[in-house]
Amino acid sequence: MAFECLNYERKDATCYLTLNRPDKLNALNAQLLGELRDALEIIELDPEIRVVILTGAGRAFSAGFDLDRGSGGVPPQGDEPDVRRRHLKSHIDTFMMVWNLSKPVIAAVNGFALAGACELVQICDIKIASDRAVLGEPEIRAGVGPPLLITPFSVGLARSKELLLTGDTIDAHEAARIGMVSRVVPHDDLMAECEKVARKISLLSPTGVKMTKISVNRALEGMGFLSAINHNLELMTHFDITSDPEQDEFNTISHEQGLRAALNWRDARFKDL
User: What is the per-residue DSSP string for 47-61?
Assistant: First the structure.
């Protein structure tokens, strides 16, 4: 299967999806997300595929949604609410395709998994991280919010509030300790470990696997997951389009000096903390 920003490969009953924009740390732009949706539709209809392994090319799983103007990213401040809501809803719909896929998806977290990509990891069914992985949701430091809000359901109230309100990142071992990922393995063993899990799943009844995934998902949905997504969509729509002095400064630096300069300005404020 030929895509430009996504590698699609099938070996026996396992489909490998690799986010493939390594020069941009696999940042999620419109083209990559569109190709991911197309790939998931193909996987859903292929009865020979029993399990999916999702990873990233190079040193990152993904740095999150692409904020670079040169790649189509624009500051959301000033957008009409309906425009921003549709934009966020498209991200949610893509991520929920992973949630609703009838085959399990294993996230092979090979490096940075930040912001929206951290949520993409968490929406997967099994999450195995390299000891080089770094996870977190620093969206608040760039003046936007998490589109999906799965983190409270992954790690609980106390840790999710600390992570989302500070924008801090954590290493793989801390992510495993709090339940954001299943476990951590040496970097060079990551794919072998994911493939071992995939082989186990592929030997099981596909009906049993499908129904068990649905059953576990329904348990979380019964705890309010879908309702939280819908409420968060409205709150984050208004958060994203609201300006304040810090956000205006970030946007000005980004426009005049580039995104990297804006990120450096943002992070410099926290260097003593």
Answer: TT--EEEEEESTTEE
Q: List the beta bridge partners of residue 53.
A: 16, 106
pLDDT band (50, 70, 90) for residue 165: very high
pTM, 2 dp: 0.90
Per-residue pLDDT at 68 exceeds 70: no
d(CA 35, CA 231): 27
Q: Considering its fold, how many domains does the chain have in total?
A: 1
The rounded distance, in Å, linking the Cα atoms of 50 and 102 is 9
Specify if 250 maps to a domain.
no
Give me the CATH number covering residue 47.
3.90.226.10
Please identify every residue annotated as catalytic.
119, 139
- The number of beta carbons lying within 10 Å of the beta carbon of residue 101 is 19
Contacts for 226 with CB less than 8 Å, ≥ 6 apart: none
